[in-house]
UniProtKB/TrEMBL annotation:
Residues 48-504 form the Aldehyde dehydrogenase domain. It comes from Promicromonospora vindobonensis. It is an enzyme of class 1 (oxidoreductase). Pfam families: Aldedh (PF00171). This is Succinic semialdehyde dehydrogenase. The lineage of its organism: Bacteria, Bacillati, Actinomycetota, Actinomycetes, Micrococcales.
Length: 544
């Protein structure tokens, strides 16, 4: 899979052929010395082994780092637990200050983060920038709204006035986060920030391919003033993730549905909370009243941002027959004109797939569809001329229902087209999947699109947008239905998952003898008559 040029680059330790606008004459090199302070942040001990990641743009080695053993993970959680006790005693406002500063750091130092994210994932700069924008949004949102989300509230007591009820939110303790490689900065921090704000500590296990970005996030939190021990990174593969679940108080998992089921099973055995953000087979419906020219650019982006390696990416286009001919022709033309490239600037529209495994999966899905009679309208080829894992943005038509690409998440730059002749059929096709993560409807008639949305079984629905405004609306919950997950991120949803509620009820009348015990002490049917009168009064007054 690695070509000769990449192999030469690998031998020299350089990431060859990557355009770096800050050094236009040079070849981009990740100096091991420069990476050393980041690598030193991994919670590891002697002899736990090493992992070598590569740069998807060329296949050349990127960094070799030590991995964590099960004992390292356990020690890390103990450290986190100690740090968490003092952190939880600070006010929400003090904790929010760290998030405010982090938001500024991510914007100010975006160039370093963008380079790392791109070199680890192979994504385009514009897809990498989505990560910067997201973390700036999430940090600001929780810093500003944190006090409101976490404040204690009063509730109506059993006996009004005599029972004083307060409901508090307490941190769960140590939150374990396990994340995939596709949005490494977002997925390192988007659950960690509300978790920290709520008074928890976080131990993160990123995917081995994107460990440097996770370490950069740890450094940025440090620079934002987060006390030591509260955000630690353990490194390695599935076994490190499994070890983490054994020790933490809540697991925030993002990844495939297959792994999510295993994580949920173990969390269930341990009786700890689990937030599961899993896969999707997202559909977008193009109604018969769309302005095709206006819709096409947004729909292309909905399908091919981050080369389709995005949980909310569109993999199925459901097109009304009345506009199908015009829409498909213009859509395919736009897809064919997308610029692919490995540039560390904004010149490329689509980047690389992140690994050989991704390339193999995408190739297998397309080959299977073709073998079953599907037609390629655009792409369908490995673009080794651009880089070892680049794959051309692909549009497939006439894909049979039994094809793998119809049912399974491809997680790559491949979209299928299905024609329908009414909204009813569109909804049936969109819901014909085990997944329920995200969907979109494109229509001039927003009322109609909203009516369609009420019948789609997904956690989020975008109207006249692919995913950006849905993901970016961080005050609203985002989470999957069906096999796409449990619980959600953003807004109050994250706080719900990352805190425990505690109800404290004070019998206020105790000071002057007005208690339930004194009522029961009256004997006979007096207590029940008094209570019946009180309950009847509460019913009439509609107290709740
Ligand atoms: P994956 O499930 O293979 O791996 C995800 C993480 O889990 C990695 O860090 C991996 O090392 C770890 N892991 C693997 N097996 C484990 C185990 N048994 N116990 C504990 N940890 C384990 O996922 P992937 O294929 O690398 O990532 C892509 C998937 O992530 C896609 O399905 C995508 O849709 C999904 N995703 C979902 C969201 C969302 O918000 N819903 C966001 C991004 C990605």
């Amino acid at each position: 899979m690695i070509d000769d040029a990449a192999a030469d680059a690998a031998a020299s330790g350089a990431v060859g052929g990557v355009l770096d606008p800050e050094h236009p004459q040079g070849t981009f090199v990740l100096e091991p010395g420069v990476m050393a302070p980041l690598v030193a942040r991994i919670a590891t001990s002697e002899g736990s082994g090493t992992h070598r990641s590569m740069c998807p743009f060329t296949g050349a080695p990127l960094v070799t780092f030590p991995v964590s053993s099960a004992e390292d993970v356990a020690a890390c959680v103990v450290r986190a637990r100690v740090a968490q006790r003092s952190w939880a005693r600070l006010s929400v406002r003090e904790r929010a200050g760290v998030l405010q500063r982090l938001g500024r750091i991510v914007l100010d130092r975006q160039s370093e983060a963008l380079d790392l994210v791109q070199l680890e994932t192979g994504k385009s700069r514009r897809a990498a920038f989505e990560e910067i924008a997201d973390i700036a949004q999430v940090a600001r949102h929780y810093a500003v709204r944190g006090e409101r989300y976490l404040s204690s509230r009063r509730a109506l007591g059993m006996v009004p006035l005599l029972a004083g009820v307060q409901v508090h939110r307490r941190p769960v303790g140590v939150v374990g986060a396990i994340s995939p490689w596709n949005y490494p900065l977002v997925l390192a921090l988007s659950e960690a920030l509300p978790a920290l704000l709520a008074g928890n500590a976080v131990v993160l296990k990123p995917d081995p391919q994107t460990t440097l970005t996770a370490l950069w996030a740890a450094e940025a939190l440090d620079d934002a003033g987060l006390p030591a021990g509260l955000f630690q990174v353990v490194a390695g593969g599935p076994e490190v993730g499994e070890a983490l679940i054994e020790h933490v108080d809540h697991i925030a998992f993002t990844g495939s549905t297959a792994t999510g089921r295993k994580v949920a099973a173990r969390a269930g055995e341990r009786l700890i909370g689990a937030t599961l953000e899993l896969g999707g087979k997202n559909a977008l419906y193009v109604t018969d009243d769309v302005d095709v020219d206006a819709a096409v650019p947004g729909i292309v982006r909905a399908c091919f941002s981050n080369a389709g390696q995005l949980c909310v990416s569109i993999e199925r286009l459901v097109v009304h027959e009345a506009v199908a001919e015009e829409f498909v022709a213009k859509f395919v033309r736009a897809v064919r004109s997308l610029r692919l490239g490995p540039a560390l600037d904004y010149s490329a529209e689509v980047g690389s797939l992140t690994s050989a495994a991704q390339l193999d999966k995408v190739t297998a899905h397309v080959d299977d569809a073709l073998a079953r009679g599907a037609r390629v309208l655009a792409g369908g080829v490995h673009r080794a001329d651009v880089g070892p894992y680049f794959y051309a943005p692909t549009v497939l038509d006439d894909v049979p229902a039994q094809a793998v690409v119809t049912r399974e998440e491809t997680f790559g730059p491949v979209v299928t087209i299905t024609r329908v002749d009414c909204d009813e059929d569109a909804v049936a096709v969109m819901n014909d999947t085990e997944y329920g993560l995200h969907s979109a409807v494109w229509s001039r008639d927003v009322g109609r699109a909203r009516r369609v949305a009420t019948r789609i079984e997904t956690g989020s629905v975008a109207i006249n947008d692919g995913y950006t405004m849905t993901w970016g609306s961080v005050s609203a919950p985002l989470g999957g239905w069906k096999a796409s997950g449990l619980g959600g991120r953003h807004g109050a949803a994250s706080i719900d998952g990352l805190t425990r509620q505690q109800t404290v009820v004070t019998a206020r009348g105790a000071r002057f003898g007005a208690t339930l015990d004194s009522l029961y002490g009256l004997g006979g049917d007096t207590p029940s008559r008094v209570l019946t009168t009180a309950l009847e009064a509460m019913r009439k007054l509609r107290m709740a």
